[in-house]
Amino acid sequence: xxRLRAAILGATxxxxxxxxxxxxxxxxxxxxxxxxxxxxxxxxxxxxxxxxVTGEMPLNVQEMVICGAAPEDLLxxxxxxxxxxxxxxxxxxxxxxLAGEGVPVFSNAGAHRMDPHVPILIPEINPDHLxxxxxxxxxxxxxxxxxxCSTSGLVFGLKPLVPFGLRDVTVTTYxxxxxxxxxxxxxxxxxxxxxxxxxGEEGKLETEPKKILxxxxxxxxxxxxxxxxxxxxxxxxxxxHLESVVVTLGQEVDAVxxxxxxxxxxxxxxxxxxxxxxxxxxVVESQVDRPQxxxxxxxxxxxxxxxxxxxxxxxxxxxxSFFLLVHNTIRGxxxxxxxxxxxxxxKGYLRAGKGxxx
Amino acid sequence: xxRLRAAILGATxxxxxxxxxxxxxxxxxxxxxxxxxxxxxxxxxxxxxxxxVTGEMPLNVQEMVICGAAPEDLLxxxxxxxxxxxxxxxxxxxxxxLAGEGVPVFSNAGAHRMDPHVPILIPEINPDHLxxxxxxxxxxxxxxxxxxCSTSGLVFGLKPLVPFGLRDVTVTTYxxxxxxxxxxxxxxxxxxxxxxxxxGEEGKLETEPKKILxxxxxxxxxxxxxxxxxxxxxxxxxxxHLESVVVTLGQEVDAVxxxxxxxxxxxxxxxxxxxxxxxxxxVVESQVDRPQxxxxxxxxxxxxxxxxxxxxxxxxxxxxSFFLLVHNTIRGxxxxxxxxxxxxxxKGYLRAGKGxxx
Amino acid sequence: xxRLRAAILGATxxxxxxxxxxxxxxxxxxxxxxxxxxxxxxxxxxxxxxxxVTGEMPLNVQEMVICGAAPEDLLxxxxxxxxxxxxxxxxxxxxxxLAGEGVPVFSNAGAHRMDPHVPILIPEINPDHLxxxxxxxxxxxxxxxxxxCSTSGLVFGLKPLVPFGLRDVTVTTYxxxxxxxxxxxxxxxxxxxxxxxxxGEEGKLETEPKKILxxxxxxxxxxxxxxxxxxxxxxxxxxxHLESVVVTLGQEVDAVxxxxxxxxxxxxxxxxxxxxxxxxxxVVESQVDRPQxxxxxxxxxxxxxxxxxxxxxxxxxxxxSFFLLVHNTIRGxxxxxxxxxxxxxxKGYLRAGKGxxx
Amino acid sequence: xxRLRAAILGATxxxxxxxxxxxxxxxxxxxxxxxxxxxxxxxxxxxxxxxxVTGEMPLNVQEMVICGAAPEDLLxxxxxxxxxxxxxxxxxxxxxxLAGEGVPVFSNAGAHRMDPHVPILIPEINPDHLxxxxxxxxxxxxxxxxxxCSTSGLVFGLKPLVPFGLRDVTVTTYxxxxxxxxxxxxxxxxxxxxxxxxxGEEGKLETEPKKILxxxxxxxxxxxxxxxxxxxxxxxxxxxHLESVVVTLGQEVDAVxxxxxxxxxxxxxxxxxxxxxxxxxxVVESQVDRPQxxxxxxxxxxxxxxxxxxxxxxxxxxxxSFFLLVHNTIRGxxxxxxxxxxxxxxKGYLRAGKGxxx
Lengths: 358, 358, 358, 358
Description:
Four copies of one chain form a homotetramer. Chain A is an alpha/beta fold.
C-alpha cells in the first residue's frame, strides 16, 4: 500500500517530535514535510530541533530542511495529510487555510476544538463524530482535532461509566511539565513545588468532555448533560498527567462492576487493529499504589504511551473515585492525532493525492 | 511566670525536632526531658537526632541525654506536661500510662484520636472540645490530640463555610514526603513521580473532620453531618501539604462572600494572643497561582508555619472550589499540639507540679 | 548615623531581590531607588517583582515605583551608592556612566571584573585591593565588583592554603538553578538530570581566583601563579553551589593542619564587626556527609547565607581534597557587594552626599 | 545452540531485575533459577520483586518461585552459570561456595574484586585478565567480577589515553540514587539536594582502575602506575552516573587527538559481535552540553545502556578534562556481568553441564 505523504506543523516542539517519532516508520504515512516557525525555516531538522523525547532522533529526518506551514509551502510538496502541533494562536488561520485548500488536517491545537463543525475525535469513544467533518463544507479538506491532554485521559474514565448515568465529575490533576512545552515551566517554579494553576486548563476540562461524550445527531453535537468541576496543578514530573476523579452516578454501583466496566472497555480502533491503537485501551492497575507517572508510561511497554491507566477504584454509594494516568504528549497529543488519521484512513476519509470525504 | 516542665516523646524524628525547635525558647514551657526509642536511649541528643528541620539544632538541647518514654522514666524528672510525637503503635499504651499517672499529654499520634473521650482539638475551630477531657476520668491526667496533618489544613477550609451549610466535601491532596517520616519515602519512588496512595490517610481525612466540626454537648461529641470523599497522593515536595477542595454547600454563594468568610475568620487563640497562634489563622492568597509549598511556608514568614493558606477560590452554583496549603509538620503536627497546650494552660488545664482539670 | 541612600539596579531579579531583602532594614544604607529594565519602569515593586527569595517582600518597598538605571534617573534622587544586579551586557556602560558621574558602584555584574582598574573585592581575602579604585581616576565615583558566584566560594577554600603553596587547583561544581536567573533553566532540562555545561562559567573560575589572590603593588594587580582546571555543571538544586576541590600544594601537609587553617581563618570584616560579615567566615563541617545545599544554607542559620562551608577534607601527599558550599545568590552575589560597601564605608570610601576616595 | 542454564542471585533488587530483563530472552542463556534472601524464598517473582526497571516484568519469570542461593538450592536445578547481584556481605561466602562446587560465577558484588586471583573483567579493556581464573584452582568453578559502577565508566575514559601516558586522574562524580539500591537513599535527603559522600565509593574508584588497567603477566596482575583522586556525591537523578574527569598525561596532546582516541576505541566484544556489546563502546557526544543522564541513556537507544558517553573534551597542556556518563545499573552492574559471561562463553570458559577452564 502506498503510504500517504504527511506534513508535520510545529515539528520542532515536544509534540512535533512525538509526531516525528511515531510517523518516521509508520505503515500508512511517510513524512513529506517538516514545518515550523520562521525562526527555524531553512535549517535542517537536527539543527532546529532540540530532541528531548525518548530515544534518538530518527536518521531519516535529521537532514530534512524545515519549511513554512502555509499552503504555498506545503501544497507543492504533494502533501496528503497534515498533522498540526502548532500553538493555538497560529493554528487558527493556518489550519483553516490548509483545510480550505482541500487538505485534511489532524490537529492537536485548541484553536478549533470548540468550533461546532469540528469534531474532537477519540475513536474509541466517539467514532461517529468523525462524520461532523461533512458539515465543514470544504470539499476534500477538513479539520479534526484531538482533545486537550488532560481531557484525553478523563474521558476514558467517564465513557465506561455512562451506562450508570453520569451526574457530575470532580477532577483534580497532577500535570507534567512537558505539557507546557519545551521551556514552559521554569525550574525555579517547580523543583520541590506544586503550582496549583495552569492557564485555561480547567476551562478545557470542564467543556471538552461534554462535547466528546455528546450526541451527534448527524448534523450537530449536543453536549452531554453532566457538570465537570476541575482543579489543575503542575507537579515536578516530566511526562504523564495523573488525575484524581470522583464521579457522581445516577445510581449506586459496586467496585467490581466499575472495575469490570473499565477493563472490558474497547473500541473500533482495537477491532480494526489500527497501528497506534493500544489494546486494551484502558489498563486497570492491580497494585494498590498505581498508576504512577514513573512506572508503566515507558515507551518500552507494549502500548507505547497510548493506553490510559486506571487504579485505586473506590466506591461509596453513588460516588466512584479513582486515579487515572495519561501520557500527555502521546495519548494526549501526537499519538491521539495519528490514531485519528489512521481511523479516518480506514473509514475512507483519507487517500493519496488528496483527502476525500466519502 | 514559671515555665512548665515539658517532656518530648519521639524527640529525634521530624515532628520531635519541630517540638524541640518550638519549645527550646518558649515563654510558657521548658524542655525537661527528651525521650525516644530504646535505640537512642543514653545518647546525647546531637548524637541521636539527625537534625533536618530549618535552622540549626538549639544549643541548649544538644547535650541532653535521651531517656525512655515510660512513666518511671519521666515522672522522676518532674514533668508537668508531655508532648508526644510517638508512632501510633507505641503511643497507644505509653500515652495512656502517662495520663493515668496524672500527666497531661498533648499528642500528635493517631492512636487515641477517634477515642470518644479524647478531643481532636484545634482551638480556633472547636475550643469547647477541650472540655471532653473531663470525661476521661483520670484525675489531673488526660490526653488531647491534634488532628492528622492533612485534616489540620482541611478543617480551616471548612469551618468558615459552616454558615452556608456543608453538604459534602471532595478533597484531593498533594502531600510532602516529610509527612512519612525521616526515611518514609524512598527517593526511587518519588523523584519525578507522584504516588497516589498513602496508607490510612484517606480514612483519616474522611472521619476526623466530622469529629472536629461535631457538636460537643458537654458530654460527648456528635459528628457533623457531611460526607468527605478523599484521595491522597505523595508528591516530590519536602514540606507542605497542598489540598484541592470542592465543597457542596446547602445554598448558592458568591466568591466574594467565600473569600470574606476565609479572610475574616479568627478564633480564641488569636484573641488570647497565644505565642504560637498565627494571626490571621487563614491567609487568603491574592496571586492567581498560589498557594504553593515552596512559597510562603518559610519559617521566615511571620506565622512560622502555623497559618493555613487558601487561594484560587472558584464558585459555581452551590459548589465552592479552592486550594489550601498547610505546613504538615508544624500546623499539622508539632505546632498544633504546642498551641493546644498553650490554650489548655490559659484555660486552667495545666499548671506546674501537675496537670489540673478545673 | 545617617544612612546612605542606595539605589538597586536590576532590582526585580533574584539577586536584586536579595539586595532588597538585605538592605531594606540595613543599619548603614537605606533604599532610595529601585531600578530595572524598561519593561518594569513605572510599575510598583510588588507589581514588577515576582518575589522568590526567602520570606515575604518587605512592606517598605512594595509601593516603591521602579525607575530607570541611567544617571539622569538616579542622580536627582540623591543616590549615595549604587548596587548593581544588572545583566553583564547592560552593566557595562550604565555602571561606567554612573561612576563617571561620581557615584560609587558595587556590582555583581561580570562586565568590569577583569578590567585592570577594577578590583574583585572580597574583604576577608584581599582587602587591600580596594585601593585599586584610585587608579580609576573618576573623582568620587568608582566601580568595585564582587566575584562570580562559584569563584566566591572557591577562593575561601584557597586563601587559607596559600601558606602551603598553591600549585594547581581542580574544581568541579554542582551549581544551583537560581544562578541562571529567574527563568534561566527550564524544568524539562534539569528535573532528574545534571547538565555539564554552563556558558562562560569555567573561564571565570579559571581566571578570577588568580586576580583575587593576586598581589596588589599599590598600582596594579599581579595575578597569582597557580593554574585552575574547572568543570561546571548544573544540578536540580534551588540555592547553593557545591564544589569539589582538589589542590596540589607546594609541600606535603596533614589533614589536621588543613582543617585548622580553614577553621581559624578570619579577616578584616570580622575584626571590624561589619553587619553582613559572617563570623567565622568559613564553617568547617564535622559531619561526614556535609556540606549539603539543603542543610545549613537556610537564612535561619546565624550567618544568613554569608559563610562558606567546607567539609570532607582529605589529604594524600601534597594533594588536598574537600567539598565547599557557597550560597550563590548571597555570598556569591548580593551579600558580597553589600559587604564590600560596608567595608568601603568603614574605610572612608563612602559618605553621604557623594562617594569619596580618601 | 543450547542455551546455558543461568541462576540469578539477588534477583529481586534493582541489579537483579536488570539481570532478569537482559537474560529473559537472551540467545545464549536462559533463566533457570531466581534466588534471593530468605525473606523472599517461596514467593513467586511477581510477588517478591517490586519491579522498577524500564518496561514491564517479563511474563516468563512472573510465576517462577524464588529459591535460596546456596549450592544445595541451585545445583539440583542444573545451573551452568551464576549471575550474582548479592550484597557484598553475603556474596563473599556464597560465591566462594558455588565456585568451589564447580560453578562459574559472574558477580557484581564487591566482595572478591580485590582478591588477587579474581579478575575485574571488562572485555573491551582487559580481556586477557580472564586468564587469571586459572589461578583460582577450583576446577571448573571460578569467580569473575565486574567493577564498581563508577569505575566501569571511568576506565573507558582512561584506557584510550594510555598511549599518551597516564600520570594522575582526578574524578568527581554525580551519582544516581539507583546505585544505592531500592530504598538506599531517602527522599528527604536528596530532593533538591546533593550529598557529597557515598560510603566506600571513593576508595573503589582509587583502587579498581589500577587493577583493571594493570598488567597481567600470566600469573598475577601488577597495578598500573597512576594515582586516582576521587570525590563522590549523590545527586537527585534516577539512573546514570556522570563523572567529571581531569587526567594529567605524560605528554602534551591536542583535543582532536583525544577525541579521536575515544571515538576510534573498540574491543574484542565488538569484534566478536557479542549480543550485549555496544558498538561503538564509547559514544563521543558532539552537543556542547552533553552527556546528560536524562538524554541518551534510554533503553530505546541502540546500545541498551551499555555504551559509555563522553563529551566536553578540553585540553590545557598535558591536562585533559571531560565528562563521562555510564548507566550505573547496566554497564556498571548487570550488563557488565552478562557481557563478561558472553565473552567467557566464546572463549571456551563456559559450557553446558558445567563451567570449564580450557
